[in-house]
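An example makes the point: we print one protein in full, the chain in one-letter code, the fold tokenised, without further comment:
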Amino acid sequence: MVLEYIGLNQISGPLIALDGVKNAGFEEMVEIKLQNGESRSGRIVQIDGERVIIQVFEGTRGISLTNTRTRLTGRPMELALSPEILGRIFDGKGKPIDGLGDVFPEKFADVNGMPMNPVSRTYPRNYINTGVSSIDCLMTLIRGQKLPIFSGSGMKHNELAVQIVRQARIAEEEGAEFCVVFAAMGVKNDVAQYFRRSFEDSGTLSRVTMFLNLSNDPIIERILTPRCALTAAEYLAFEQNKHVLVIMTDMTSYAEALREFSSSKGEIPGRKGYPGYLYSDLASLYERAGMIEGHTGSVTQIPILTMPNDDITHPVPDLTGYITEGQIVLDRSLDGKGIYPPVSVLPSLSRLMKDGIGEGYTREDHSALANQLFASYAHVQDARSLASVIGEEELSPIDHRYIEFGKAFETLFLNQSFHENRTIDQTLDLGWQLLSMLPKEELDRVDDEMLEKHYKQSETPGTAGAL
């Protein structure tokens, strides 16, 4: 029996309260009919006895306390899924906005996802080639991994996201298919158009599913956007057996929407006003990445978040770092030098890369090369710090060599064109050419056999730049 409740008890921001409701379920969808015949949707976000709090997706403007009719649907929010979602563009609630009509669903799935049994998870192996040297060599993205990008306001994280979507590939495997799910939260209209136009112009839209939530859309929709995107990704990965890369930008906008929503519910705030459950809420999204035993597909995540005031200890990047398996940090000083992408090497890492690179995956020298580049670039920072104290002319000859290596490393290795797609072999060869600028005895992270094979003392920065 379907009951319809007439009237409301309270309206507060995007929330309405209804008393005398029996047998309601948390996250249950609700249909709301206004006096003028308009229909809106919402979901139950809090239950206190027979009192329920309902989150209205379209906002509460124009809703009356006396004549509004509310009906519980008895089911959670679900997303229509079929193989044809590839190449389509949806809003934050999963409704098509590309003018191609509704999706003819093969099934409906709860956007909150199903818990992934830890026992059924398989360890992430093999890598995803992004065509970006700094990522592919030094912080390799592994299938099934969650590897966030920590950026700052005004930096080129949007361009990097587009480049990764355009260039990302997996190693050639029989029957393996690769696709991308892209979710944008709280973006301005011009940024949304930039993403959409970039994917269309590059011809990659056919393998991309887009979810766009604009800055003038309701904050409730912003909270749903990553859940819809991950639901689509899980369907494509575990039912269509595809390797799916999920890029979500900007997670800081998501967290701020969550903070606003929590405040409207009257919850006690935590650090910087964010709700105390921010960690578990982010984990409920990030932990939907992975691989499941018995399925050939995988879900890999690259969440992008902007750090307010470039503060890496801010709650959003801080908690994200606890949950994810590494991070890619963008540096404002490198960005100021015109280096793109401005990846800050030393605070960046990928904790799973050791198990997805090397012989059989990338190349046998990859791990040793990455370790040596990290160590040598760390020495560059020490030499620069010393030069700032005593002056560069007072440095030792070897410190001068490191200063030269650092400049070449940043301008030739880290820096690459937005349209430049480097293979893993090109990236590794370039790394060896740069290391050959240093004396052989300084390369203490590489064994003699590998040095003999790859070290070429005659190489100079000029020849390295020819790659």
